[in-house]
From TrEMBL:
Belongs to the glutaminase family. Homotetramer. The keyword Transmembrane helix does not apply. The keyword Hydrolase applies. It comes from Sorlinia euscelidii. It catalyses: L-glutamine + H2O = L-glutamate + NH4(+). This is Glutaminase. Its EC number is 3.5.1.2. InterPro entries: Beta-lactam/transpept-like, Glutaminase. The gene is glsA. It comes from the Bacteria.
Length: 315
C-alpha cells in the first residue's frame, strides 16, 4: 500500500476519532496513568516496505504496560522455551487480566503468558536467568534495538521509575498472584525480585512510532528487518501471534478478533500493538479504556484501518 494512501487513511481515522465524545476511562489505579489526558490519540503504521506512516500524538511516549508482555515472552522464548510451557498454559482465559480464580483449580498454572499471572511466571523465569536488574537491562536493550532511532530528537525508550514505584505500591493483586503461585511451586525465584522485574516491564515508556517499529519482527516471521537478526524463530513467532489473537485482549479477545481480525496486544496505558503478518506492524494509543481494560478508541481506530485496508487475517 502506498505511503500516501496510508497517510490519508490515518488522517481520516484521526478526524473521526476527534469527533467521538465518549472516550472510555483512563486507568486510575496509579497517578502516572490517571493523570493522562483522555484527548490523546496517536497511531503509527510500519509496513514491510520499510516506511512508517503516523498521525496525532504518535511521537509521544506512553506507558506500554501489558504490551510489554510480548517482549518479555519473546526474551524468555530465546533461552527457556521448554520450561515456559511446563509452567504456563497456551489457552484463552475468558477472565479479566488480573484474575486469580483459575489458579486454584489449575494448580498454580496460569492459562497463558498474557494475563498477569502468566506474565509474572515469565518474569520469574527471566529473573532466575538474568536477575531483576538484568531483566530490565535485557528488555530495554531488546526494545531499543528493535525500535531503532530514526526520528530526530526522539527520546530513547526508557523505563519510568515513578511508574514502576507506583505499580509496586499499588500492586497488591499482583503480589497475591505471585504468592499464590509460589504455594504451588510455580514462582521459584525470590518473589520480590520477580515482581520488581514485572513492575519495571509494565513501566516501559514508548511512543506509537517506537512501538510499531519494535513490532516489525512479529510481521517478518521473527526477523528484525533492519538488522536481519532472528529475534524469534518462525515457529515461536507464529506462537506469539496465535497467543496475541487468543489472549491479547483478555476476556475481550473474541470481540477484538471479530472487530479487528489481527493478532493484537493491549495495555492499560491505552496502547495496542497489532500485527498484519508480512504486511504491517501497527501501534495505536488512546488512554481511555473499555470495561475489560483495553483501549476503546484504539480498538475503533484499528477496526477502521482494517476496514480501509482489508488487512484482516480472516479474509
Ligand atoms: N500494570 C498492570 C497490572 O499489572 C498491567 C495490566 C495491563 O496492562 N492489562 O495490573
Amino acid at each position: 500500500m502506498a505511503k500516501l494512501d496510508l497517510d490519508e487513511m490515518l488522517a481520516q481515522i484521526a478526524s473521526e476519532i476527534a469527533k467521538i465524545t465518549y472516550r472510555g476511562r483512563v486507568a486510575d489505579y496509579i497517578p502516572p496513568l490517571a493523570d493522562v489526558s483522555l484527548d490523546k490519540f496517536g497511531m503509527a503504521v510500519c509496513t514491510a516496505d520499510g516506511t512508517c506512516a503516523r498521525t496525532g500524538d504518535a511521537e509521544e511516549g506512553f506507558s506500554i504496560q501489558s504490551v510489554s508482555k510480548i517482549f518479555a515472552l519473546t526474551l524468555a522464548l530465546q533461552h527457556d522455551a521448554a520450561e515456559i510451557w511446563q509452567r504456563v498454559g497456551r489457552e484463552p482465559s475468558g477472565t479479566p487480566f488480573n484474575s486469580i480464580v483459575q489458579l486454584e483449580s489449575e494448580h498454580g498454572i496460569p492459562r497463558n503468558p498474557f494475563i498477569n499471572a502468566g506474565a509474572i511466571v515469565i518474569a520469574d523465569i527471566l529473573t532466575a536467568r538474568y536477575g531483576a536488574k538484568g531483566v530490565q537491562a535485557k528488555l530495554l536493550a531488546l526494545v531499543r534495538d528493535l525500535s531503532g532511532r530514526d526520528v530526530t530528537g526522539e527520546a530513547p525508550v526508557s523505563i519510568n521509575e515513578a511508574t514502576a514505584r507506583a505499580e509496586k505500591s499499588s500492586g497488591h493483586r499482583n503480589v497475591a498472584l505471585a504468592q499464590y503461585m509460589r504455594v504451588f511451586g510455580n514462582i521459584r525465584h525470590d518473589v520480590e525480585e520477580t515482581l520488581d522485574a514485572y513492575f519495571h516491564q509494565c513501566a516501559l515508556t514508548m511512543s506509537c512510532t517506537q512501538l510499531a517499529r519494535a513490532g516489525r519482527y512479529l510481521m517478518m516471521e521473527g526477523v528484525n528487518p533492519v538488522s536481519r537478526h532472528v529475534i524469534a524463530t518462525a515457529a515461536h513467532n507464529r506462537l506469539i501471534l496465535a497467543l496475541m489473537m487468543m489472549c491479547g485482549h483478555y476476556d475481550a479477545s473474541g470481540n477484538f478478533a471479530i472487530k479487528v481480525g489481527l493478532p493484537g496486544k493491549s495495555g492499560v496505558g491505552g496502547g495496542i500493538l497489532a500485527i498484519a503478518p508480512r504486511i504491517a506492524s501497527v501501534a495505536v494509543w488512546s488512554p481511555g479504556l473499555c470495561a475489560a481494560g483495553n483501549s476503546l478508541l484504539g480498538t475503533y481506530a484499528l477496526e477502521r484501518l482494517v476496514q480501509m485496508t482489508g488487512w484482516t487475517v480472516f479474509s
